[in-house]
Write a structure and sequence with these properties.
heterodimer, A: 111 residues, mainly beta, 5-stranded mixed sheet, 4-stranded antiparallel sheet, 47% strand, globular, B: 114 residues, 7-stranded mixed sheet, 0% helix, 48% strand
Chain lengths: 111, 114
């Protein structure tokens, strides 16, 4: 699996967009990018995933660069409840089972 | 609430005792996963089941750890002869086999070994 690199922490003002970057320069053609988050004292929560096209759902948008070496998770209007650790994970779809969580980015949304 | 439940939510035990945790997945999910998370770290995969078959167990931390899913529904994780290093959050997740990386996690069981 490709290695991912994320900044350890970020701050965002409430109501503003939170843009969380992830570098995955060794990603291969059949690997998807998955994003999860973990709010304090809860289990991780699936957010979104994508292969090469940008994706959007009710929680977030995922922008993947054309060369697929990096991606950005966008929370369009961050709220205090979005304060969490965000994990970027790269996996070949349906190739296995386990999720490999790195250190993630601790996002602090401030009033 | 993701629909995955775990019991108990907290467990305090003395070193050397055995403990068992239960996970009830989302009912239509045929895959069930166990992870462990220590303070400040991301979750670490332990094992997983497809229906009642345990398909991966090489990452269980030692032979003191075992898991079962006898009827393909709920699962149990047992730790025998607990050690202080076993203190952690134990997380369960479930998914459909067609979307194995869209996993729904339970709230976890926090184990403290004294």
């Amino acid at each position: 699996d490709a290695k991912t690199t994320q900044p350890p922490s970020m701050d965002c003002a409430e109501g503003r967009a939170a843009n969380l970057p992830c570098n995955h320069s060794t990603i291969s053609g059949n690997e998807y990018v998955y994003w999860y988050r973990q709010i304090h004292s809860q289990g991780p929560q699936y957010i979104i995933h994508g292969l090469k096209n940008n994706e959007t759902n009710e929680m977030a948008s995922l922008i993947i660069t054309e060369d697929r070496k990096s991606s950005t998770l966008i929370l369009p209007h961050a709220t205090l409840r979005d304060t969490a650790v965000y994990y970027c994970i790269v996996r070949v779809a349906n190739a296995g089972n386990m999720l490999t969580f790195g250190g993630g980015t601790r996002l602090m949304v401030k009033p | 609430d993701t629909g995955v439940s775990q019991d108990p939510r907290h467990k305090i035990t003395k070193r050397g005792q055995n403990v068992t945790f239960r996970c009830d997945p989302i009912s239509e999910h045929n895959r069930l996963y166990w992870y462990r998370q220590t303070l400040g770290q991301g979750p670490e995969f332990l094992t997983y089941f497809q229906n009642e078959a345990q398909l991966e167990k090489s990452r269980l931390l030692s032979d003191r750890f075992s898991a079962e899913r006898p009827k393909g529904s709920f699962s149990t994780l047992e730790i025998q002869r607990t050690e202080q290093g076993d203190s952690a959050m134990y997380l369960c997740a479930s998914s459909l086999s067609g979307t194995p990386y869209e996993q729904y996690f339970g709230p976890g069981t926090r184990l403290t070994v004294t």
